[in-house]
Design goal:
Layout lengths: L2 H13 L8 H14 L3 E7 L3 E8 L5 E3 L5 H7 L3 E3 L22 E8 L5 E9 L7 H29 L2 H32 L1 E5 L5 E4 L1 H7 L3 H4 L16 H9 L4 E8 L5 E12 L5 E10 L1 H52 L3 H32 L7 E4 H19 L2 E6 L6 E4 L1 H17 L5 E11 L3 E10 L21 H7 L5 H11 L3 E7 L3 E12 L13 E2 L6 E6 L3 H11 L4 E6 L2 H10 L4 E5 L7 H10 L7 E5 L4 H9 L4 E4 L4 H11 L8 E2 L3 H5 L7 H7 L3 H27 L3 H17 L5 H12 L2 H27 L1
Helix pairs in contact: 2-4, 4-5, 9-10, 9-15, 10-14, 11-12, 12-14, 16-17, 19-24, 22-23, 22-25, 23-24, 24-25
């Protein structure tokens, strides 16, 4: 250790200050240093050979730090004012513990505390976890306060020495001390003056009246300094804030420091906000003789915060309004669609004239296309609002590609173009992801390829990009020899409502939403999508998605088949529906069956009919005059205490609508437009009372007498190609076996999501073969309700149905 350092340590020890109790005057100087420098941390410390010990501190909890970890060691080395405005870039301190982490120090400044013998016994320092820089006035004020702190420390040491000296020496030192204090008071007043140049400053008497205020403070409130003199603190407050003012001033007069964000009254009556500190100043007897307030105006910051909150509240309200708007749009579009498609289906069942049947099929196709467009728009809204969730479930990617290809190959055959699938041998069979959303993307992109290709081919290629033990990245390429996309349209092809040419839009139709929805879904699955194309030569859409690797599920044993059947007794139904067309449609749909239908045009009339007659089931429209479906259901459940099943009939496509219906006490939900078989299934599921519902097993002879599938649907797709029809039948039989195995596994562990997904996927295969899909729809609905008993019953019915369908198809293929 060098001799100079030994001398410094002797000086430090001579003060006998280490580990002594806190002292109020040094604490106040530390507070003033923090306020002057506008930083959260200020420390007055003593440094020996091992540690930096905090005599006074603001903004820190610890009391000391090892010398080797301190910033202040460099202030001692520099032997002058030291400022580090970018701690992270300073080689001396950037590695210190206090500089680490998000909340680490970003700014530091220090002044050495120099004893009269010339040795530095410690420092006064300031710091912040945010970037900062002191002004020249702040530096000067800082140095003055550091000098004052050293003077106080030195004075205390002198007092200790004087206590041991003779009285004559004591008197002489008192005189010197008085002069020193007077000088420091002058410096303190200079400091207050310096503060008042950049901050609002006002001084109060202990009773709360102003005796001095600078012009900055006066301007905040719309006064002059002279006008404020003599005004009581009460007059600067709003009426509602004055009730707590007495307690506030009582606390100040007890010497308690106050700070925070405070609302004050402008001369004009408007409110302003101040970030302020109230500092009680004590006389020699420890009594408060004045209060100094230092403040800065933060009105704009407070208003910005309020504006931000209002914007957030407005955004939430707008989102609610958007949901309501979409619900209304859905209702207004789907209600007439329900009637159009329903009556068209009824006419097609009865019409035998070829030309009229052709016209009716055209109406049905147009209606289906319009419904698809409405659903596209609502899907887009779900993506925008973030309500679309990407599932992470195990599935067979090869099987999914096979199902999508089977569905879309029909369209390719109709257009007499080639559609092929190539799957890289390295693509794993089982992966984890969202099977339904991936299928939606593929159907959109491949469907577009087929739609825009009149000759040549459409090809789907699936490749493995890379793979590790837990993840595989797959790339899907959809290539076609269609019309292509102009170069200047490629950059906007994924935009909403975008198509490459208005002529193309008129020729091929579509909303221009499919590609935008596909891109959104790909990105939702952490993937990327791109396109390349040449006009007249074709296009290639490709997308890459990362998936987790999966494992093949273990097969479970199969169960016996049972089925719900229609009761011979009459089912009494109350229909609450205000739309006359829909009343007529439901009446016509139910006319041939064993139903007794009573119609009410609104909820109030429905309640009256319900009290007059006994019903087995209520079909409840949601949007009705006088009393809507929600109000009517609540009345039936809470006032009449009935448990008669209620099925909601609504044109609202949103999932929230279904949830709301079930929460309010309805038993099930049917979205318009619905099919006749869907309505009948709901009625048979809920319409029979417990006493009328029976579980029976149909004999194969009974079921064989019925036509299990309508092969006219497949013939329409095949264009008379019998080989293609047999191929589709064989594929269907294979899919059924895989589906039953998967369903057994899902049901064994009550995996409701996969039950719904598997049933949903099988609907397209059933539809192609003309098979009945109503029970698959029921499985989806029951899975959403997590009704395992209902699922088991309906699944048994599906398996019993398939026991008739499979032999029927096998016989057809033999002929």
């Amino acid at each position: 250790m060098k001799a100079k350092e030994i001398d410094r340590l002797k000086t430090v020890l001579s003060y006998n200050i280490l580990d002594t109790p806190a002292e109020e005057d040094l604490d106040k100087i530390a507070e003033l240093i923090a306020m002057v420098c506008e930083v959260p941390i200020a420390i007055i410390s003593i440094i020996d050979d091992r540690r930096q010990w905090y005599k006074a501190k603001v903004g820190v909890d610890n009391d000391e730090v090892p010398v080797e970890d301190s910033f202040c060691q460099f202030t001692l080395i520099e032997d002058r004012f030291l400022e580090i405005t970018a701690v992270q870039d300073d080689e001396r301190v950037k590695g210190k513990p206090a500089a680490q982490g998000v909340d680490g120090l970003k700014f530091y400044a220090g002044v050495p505390l120099k004893a009269p013998d010339g040795h530095n016994i410690g420092t006064a320092c300031v710091a912040s976890s945010k970037p900062h820089k002191l002004t020249e006035k702040q530096k000067k004020a800082f140095e003055l306060l550091a000098d004052q702190a050293m003077t106080l420390i030195d004075a205390k040491r002198s007092n200790q020495i004087l206590g041991d000296e003779l009285k004559t020496i004591l008197d002489r030192q008192k005189s010197i001390l008085k002069k020193s204090i007077k000088q420091k008071e002058s410096e303190f007043n200079a400091l207050i003056q310096a503060i008042s140049l950049s901050n609002a400053l006002v001084q109060f008497n202990p009773d709360g009246t102003v005796f001095e205020a600078n012009q900055i403070f006066a301007s905040y409130l719309g006064f002059t300094s002279e006008e404020l003199r003599g005004i009581h603190h009460d007059e600067l407050l709003f009426e509602e804030d004055r009730k707590n003012n007495n307690a506030f001033w009582e606390s100040l007069n007890q010497g308690n420091f106050k700070s925070g964000q405070m609302k004050r009254k402008h001369r004009s009556g408007k409110e302003i906000w101040l970030l302020a500190t109230y500092n009680p100043i004590l006389d020699s007897e420890g009594k408060v003789f004045k209060i100094i307030k230092i403040a800065q105006e933060i009105t704009s910051s407070i208003e910005s915060r309020k504006a931000l909150q209002k914007a957030k509240d407005d955004a939430i309200q707008l989102n609610i309004q958007k949901d309501n708007f979409l619900a209304n749009v859905s209702h207004e579009l789907r209600t007439p669609l329900h009637a159009i498609l329903g009556f068209t289906k009824l006419l097609l069942e009865e019409e035998t004239d070829t030309i009229k049947t052709e016209y009716l099929n055209a109406v049905k196709t147009a209606g289906d296309n319009l419904l698809f467009t409405v659903n596209d728009i609502l899907d887009l809204s779900k993506i925008e609002s973030g309500t679309i969730l990407i599932e992470q479930l195990e599935f067979d990617i090869h099987q999914l590609i096979h199902e999508v290809a089977s569905f879309l190959k029909i369209k390719a055959v109709q257009k007499k173009i080639s559609f092929t699938v190539e799957i890289d041998a390295e693509v794993p069979k089982w992966i984890i992801g969202d099977k339904n959303r991936l299928g939606q993307i593929l159907i959109n992109l491949i469907g577009n390829g087929i739609k825009f290709t009149d000759k040549g081919y459409v090809k789907l290629k699936l490749e493995r990009v890379r793979e590790n033990t837990s993840q595989v990245i797959l790339k899907f390429r959809i290539q076609d020899t269609g019309i292509g996309i102009a170069l200047d349209k490629l950059s906007v092809i994924f935009d909403r409502f975008s198509q490459s040419d208005e002529k193309i839009s008129r020729r091929f139709g579509g909303t221009g939403l499919g590609l935008n929805i596909s891109k959104s879904l790909v990105e939702k699955m952490d993937g990327t999508i791109e396109v390349s194309s040449k006009v007249g030569l074709g296009s290639e859409f490709s997308f890459t998605i990362p998936f987790q690797r999966g494992q093949q599920p273990i097969e479970k044993s199969k169960e016996a088949a049972v089925s719900f059947t229609q009761s011979k007794q009459v089912i009494k139904i109350l229909l609450c529906e205000d739309n006359e067309i829909n009343q007529t449609l439901v009446k016509t749909l139910l006319r041939p069956a064993n139903f007794d239908l009573v119609i009410a045009s609104n909820g109030e009339e429905g309640i009256q009919r319900f009290q007059e007659m006994d019903f087995d089931l209520v079909l409840m429209d949601i949007q009705m005059p006088i009393m809507d479906g929600y109000q009517t259901t609540i009345y039936l459940r809470e006032k009449l205490h009935t448990q008669v099943p209620i099925i909601a009939l609504t044109a609202n496509y949103m999932l929230k609508e279904k949830q709301k219906c079930l929460e309010l006490g309805m038993n099930d939900y049917l979205s318009k437009p619905f099919k006749k078989e869907e309505l009948f299934e709901k009625i048979y599921l809920w319409g029979d009372s417990v006493n009328k519902k029976q579980l029976i097993t149909k004999t194969e002879e009974d079921q064989a007498a019925e036509a299990p599938v309508d092969l006219n649907v497949l013939k329409e797709y095949s264009g008379g190609d019998e080989a293609f029809e047999h191929e589709m039948m064989q594929m269907f039989i294979g899919q059924v076996e895989k589906w039953k195995t998967a369903m057994d596994n899902h049901m064994a562990i009550a995996d409701f999501k996969n039950i719904a997904d598997s049933s949903h996927k099988m609907k397209s295969s059933f539809s192609v073969l003309g098979a009945d899909t109503k029970d698959l729809i029921n499985l989806e609905d029951l899975a959403e309700l997590e009704d395992i008993d209902g699922i088991e019953a309906v699944y048994s019915r599906v398996k019993q149905y398939l026991k008739i369908v499979i032999p029927f198809l096998e016989n057809k293929m033999k002929k």
